[in-house]
């Protein structure tokens, strides 16, 4: 692997640890009110904003430092860069959560409480898919950065940032909704299929908007 990409992905991995400090504020917000829609519309929005912002910052800095310019053959490179940054961010988050489960005495530094939690196969299974959803979000944001570099449309960065946020909130929000209304589980896919289904939907979204952005570029080239 090229050393510059190793540096980028390592930075993304470590940024997951840094941005996890936001959990102190989220813990405070949770103490203020505990209802389903407050959790989805406030807590999960806050969570999605900071995690997608971390990816956007790293993608933007990477494109500037390594001069990934607006040549047509750079499109897949930028989207792949966003995907890789999201993937490494998800891996960093998973690593930190596993570490805090094994050593809960350090969890308070990140505003979490992992005492009594057990590292299970179901957690590993859930993280496997969660890492991929982070990668999808990074890819979506990468498309927004690509469209800015190619078309100078600044609003596209915001649009695709919001798309990534909405996808993130739809995943976490669904889990929160099931937590508050477990009786509705019979209307949802089995737990083992829930995350794979959401991941598959995410890949579909990434493919469609990625293909569409290429078609727009060809039409304006």
Kindly estimate the percentage of residues that lie in beta strands according to DSSP.
under 5%
Q: What's the total helix number?
A: 7
Q: How many domain modules?
A: 1
The dominant shape is globular
Low-confidence stretches: none
Class per helix and strand makeup: mainly alpha
Key words describing this protein structure:
221 residues, 7 helices, mainly alpha
Describe this structure in words.
There is one protein chain. The chain is mainly alpha-helical and 221 residues long. The chain has one domain (3-220). It has 7 helices and no strands. Helix 2 packs antiparallel against helix 3. The model has no long low-confidence stretch (mean pLDDT 85).
How does the SSE layout of this entry go?
Layout: H1 3-19, H2 23-32, H3 36-65, H4 75-102, H5 121-151, H6 154-180, H7 191-220
TL;DR of this structure?
The chain is mainly alpha-helical and 221 residues long. It has helices at residues 3-19, 23-32, 36-65, 75-102, 121-151, 154-180, 191-220.
């Amino acid at each position: 692997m090229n050393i510059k990409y190793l540096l980028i992905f390592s930075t993304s991995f470590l940024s997951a640890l840094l941005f996890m400090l936001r959990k102190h504020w989220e813990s405070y917000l949770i103490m203020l009110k505990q209802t389903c829609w407050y959790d989805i519309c406030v807590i999960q929005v806050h969570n999605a904003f900071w995690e997608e912002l971390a990816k956007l910052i790293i993608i933007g800095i990477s494109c500037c430092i390594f001069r990934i310019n607006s040549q047509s053959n750079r499109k897949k490179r930028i989207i792949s860069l966003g995907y890789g940054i999201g993937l490494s961010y998800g891996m960093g988050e998973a690593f930190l959560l596993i570490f805090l489960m094994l050593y809960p005495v350090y969890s308070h530094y990140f505003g979490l409480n992992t005492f009594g939690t057990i590292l299970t196969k179901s957690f590993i299974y859930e993280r496997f898919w969660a890492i991929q959803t982070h990668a999808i979000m990074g890819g979506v944001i990468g498309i927004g950065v690509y469209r800015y570099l190619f078309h100078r449309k600044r609003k596209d960065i915001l649009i695709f940032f919001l798309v990534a946020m909405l996808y993130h909130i739809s995943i976490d929000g669904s889990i929160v909704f099931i937590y508050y209304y477990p009786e509705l589980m019979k209307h949802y896919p089995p737990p083992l299929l829930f995350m794979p289904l959401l991941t598959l939907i995410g890949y579909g979204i990434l493919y469609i908007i990625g293909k569409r952005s290429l078609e727009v570029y060809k039409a304006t080239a």
